[in-house]
Amino acid sequence: MRNFKVKIALFILGGIAMFFAVTGIVMWLWNLLLPEIVGVKIISFWQAMGILVLSKILFGGFGGKGGNGWKRKGKEKFRRWTDNHCSSMSDEEKERLKEMWKKRCESGNFFRRD
Fold this sequence. Notes:
By secondary structure, the chain is mainly α. The protein is built from 4 helices and no strands.
């Protein structure tokens, strides 16, 4: 039991250390690149941490292992649907479908019905 508690403590401390390391990398990259390219001010460590937290809130990054589960499930569901739906189509029907989507993508009219 004691071994388990030590592992949990190390895991938590490692996560905190990793967060501080990533914050330092964000600050370093910001201060190295952006003032020269865009002309913004340099930032402090705490400002870099704020940017990191804000980006997490706004964009939901740091997913790891291929992103969020709902994204993987959605892709898998779509793949199964296309496999089932397209397997019963003739080659001519598949070609017509490809052409229809190609036209929609080129014109930007995704929701138009032909």
